UniProtKB/TrEMBL annotation:
The keyword Metal-binding applies. ADP binds at residues 45-49, 179, 210-212, 236. NCBIfam families: PFKA_ATP, PRK03202.1. It comes from Prosthecochloris aestuarii (strain DSM 271 / SK 413). It is an enzyme of class 2 (transferase). The gene is pfkA. This is ATP-dependent 6-phosphofructokinase. Allosterically activated by ADP and other diphosphonucleosides, and allosterically inhibited by phosphoenolpyruvate.
């Protein structure tokens, strides 16, 4: 899909029987929800400006669903989103809201949207945020369109989520530095990266850094690879090593794993580095900005086309629309071939 043609809303077409017109869209809301991801600001900017270009008013909803419940709204004009495309985090802030999970919380949110005259909403977040949007749109007459924003890249129906590429590059930069000290001292580093349920960030950063072993929740057989490396690989040639551990690989993460390895191999110098929230921050990469911009424009396009409960995604470079119920229920496919490549190259 390309940039939408500007629409004259007074020309909104009548339905087939010629009697009823589609509900006219006047004001949209936009918010960010769940974990922050670099590139969310680029998406807010694109949504705001595409909406204004199509003669819509825009309201920014601050602090995710909690802000929606509390009516924490600000008007967004074109100048309000100026100079934010390069910023990490989200100018609208984000939150996780327990109250929104309750019918009472969603009723309050609905009232606030009604009071503010908001006809439809763009939600930028992960699958939890889309589940919330789907639930509310089934209870109340309000359209939501989603933009996938999460560093995990774990959402079905899109090759790409905003923030993933920036986070991947942050991990690669950090591990390259850790490698310098690992080689100098002959140490093994267990580097824990984010990914409670999805190991894509761990897998791809491990490939990009030439990690000796990559442990991810999707493949338990990788623990055999770790054993082989500790028993033979390290002594035979490596003298140091990087083991990338996705935080969801096993309870206790890299710290627990290092403790176990030290018990079995007291002769090895094993260290742990947990990259933590550094992975979420920073200026978004060019691709994160471009894709956030494309998806932001496509989200406004979809609302103008009277779409509801869909996520905008990117599939083979093309913008696609994925129903929320598929995006939240199906699993993002895991690239087993990449794991095989990593194993083959670590001879
Ligand atoms: P990330 O991938 O970064 O964690 P996310 O959008 O999946 O992002 P969640 O914390 O799972 O993050 O969800 C964000 C918010 O969406 C929750 O705090 C809650 O307010 C709302 N939400 C999630 N699941 C539901 C649900 N089943 N019903 C209603 N609201 C929900």
């Amino acid at each position: 899909m390309t940039i939408s043609a500007m629409r004259d809303l007074s020309m909104t077409p009548a339905t087939e029987n010629g009697l009823r017109r589609k509900p006219i869209l006047r004001k949209i809301g936009v918010f960010t929800s769940g974990g922050d991801a670099p590139g969310m600001n680029a998406a807010i900017r694109a949504v705001t400006r595409a909406a204004i270009a199509n003669k819509l008013k825009v309201t920014g909803i601050r602090r995710g669903y909690q802000g929606m419940i509390e009516g924490d709204f600000i008007p967004l004009r074109s100048s309000d989103v100026s100079g934010i495309i390069q910023l990490g985090g989200t100018i609208l802030r984000t939150a996780r809201s327990k109250e929104f999970r309750t019918p009472e919380g969603r009723e309050k949110a609905w009232q606030q949207l009604q009071n503010a005259g908001i006809d439809a909403v763009v939600v930028i977040g992960g699958d939890g945020s889309f589940t919330g949007a789907l639930t509310m749109s089934q209870e109340y007459n309000i359209s939501f369109v989603g933009i996938p924003g999460t560093i995990d890249n774990d959402i079905y129906g899109t090759d790409y989520t905003i923030g993933y590429e920036t986070a991947l590059n942050s991990v690669v930069c950090a591990v390259d530095k850790i490698r310098d000290t690992a080689v100098s001292h002959g140490r093994i580093f267990m580097v824990e990266v984010m990914g409670r349920e999805a190991g894509l960030l761990a897998l791809n950063s491990g490939i990009a850094c030439g990690a000796e072993v990559i442990l991810i929740p999707e493949s338990k057989e990788q623990h055999d690879a770790l054993k082989r490396f500790l028993d033979k690989g390290y002594k035979r040639k490596e003298r140091s090593g990087i083991v990338i551990v996705a935080e969801g690989d096993e309870p206790g993460g890299a710290l627990k794993l290092a403790e176990n390895v030290r018990c079995e191999h007291p002769e090895l110098d094993v260290r742990v580095s947990i990259l933590g929230h550094i992975q979420r921050g920073g200026s978004p990469t060019a691709n994160d900005r471009i894709n956030a911009t494309r998806m932001g424009v496509a989200a406004v396009d979809a609302l103008l086309d009277d779409q509801k409960s869909i996520m905008i995604g990117i599939d083979n470079g093309r913008i696609v629309q994925v129903p929320f119920n598929k995006a939240v229920k199906l699993n993002h496919s895991f690239d087993r071939e990449l794991l095989e490549i990593q194993k083959m190259l670590n001879i």
